[in-house]
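Predict the structure of ethanolamine kinase.
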Amino acid sequence: MGSTYESGNDVLSSLRYIPQSYNHADSQASALRLVLTLNPDWDGPGNNIELVRFTDGITNTLLKIINRKPEWTEEQIDHEAVLMRAYGNCTELIIDREREMKSHALLASRGLAPALLARFQNGLLYRFLRGTPANHLELAQPPIWRGVARRLGQWHAVLPIQGKPAFPATKELPIVKNPVEIESEVSEKPDTNGPLIQPRHPGPNLWTVLQKWILVLPTATEEQQARRQRMQAELERVVKEFDDGKGIGEDGLVFAHCDLLCANVIVTEESIESGPDEEVRKVHFIDYEYANPSPAAFDLANHFAEWAGYDCDYSMVPTRSVRRQFLSQYIQSYRHHREIPDSAHEEMVDRLYEDVDRFRGIPGLYWGVWALIQAQISQIDFDYASYAENRFGEYYAWRREQDGSRAQEGEEMPLRERRWAQEA
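Done. Here is the predicted structure for ethanolamine kinase.
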């Protein structure tokens, strides 16, 4: 497979740069300046520009900018609409913005993302995709989850994964310099009493991203220092257990979305197939901030975790039978795009089902660490600290099922684990 960045670099080299920034304190005026620089013909009589704020994201500002010209139909208005994504406060600590742009450009070159229009100092402008963001209850609707399964199978089948090394060849934890001054004491000097992980894949991937996040966890107090040490130990443990080169893709990795929550699934009115109990809705995936080479089983287990929504409603986690049906649709799509014979279908589903089950606790660790950082840097009104505890709870509940300690202590199985084990 070729480089993840080849197609992305080609698109980015010709992408317009606007030397302006979006100002969160002056949203209307700064967004208007950006879109009029992009589309100067939107200025003057006969134009009626509106800004629609999307509020589902919890790390960025996302605005839909439309020109409601009297002679245009709603479809024409949406076709010409511009999405403006402005990065959240200090999110460069946890998101590689250059990689995000290259990922978006790569996806756009394959018809899997909206066309990029321009970048500016703290964000991107790109085309609008018609459709409606799903909510977490809709993820459980068969026509929608079939569409998600088909689209994700296509992603994993057709996108290349190669990239640049994420870490230098060293076993010492580096000194991490934050790009901005942060009042809340996010760590600038990680402890150096442990080795950096050495994953099989040298470029950016699930494990190296999680390592970078752990390196910027706050360490202002002894409690925070101890927590960061625990997180490092857990990372080393899971890399040893899970970074084994097994699974579908290239050396056990695919180009994964890694953040397939409900708001990042755009549901269209179009059906790919329609029949008795077999409707498949066409969906698009948006927001590629965390996209990188990862085990397919992580991307799938992470999506299943997101059926619970932001409020962690574990009664919505898909049961065994639903997960298997989802994975069958996914493998059908994956095989189609990789031209794998039908005879391999059931064996691939069986293996992937077991692998997803094995990975079910890892999203809790991943997003728990992420939420600890967000609790320090984000200005968005969201209880990241409680969210972190919920997600870590998922990880440790899974650990206790794996080692049998929960049963040995005679405690009741947590709802998420009960739901995961439920057949129908």
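The chain has two domains: 4-127, 131-424.
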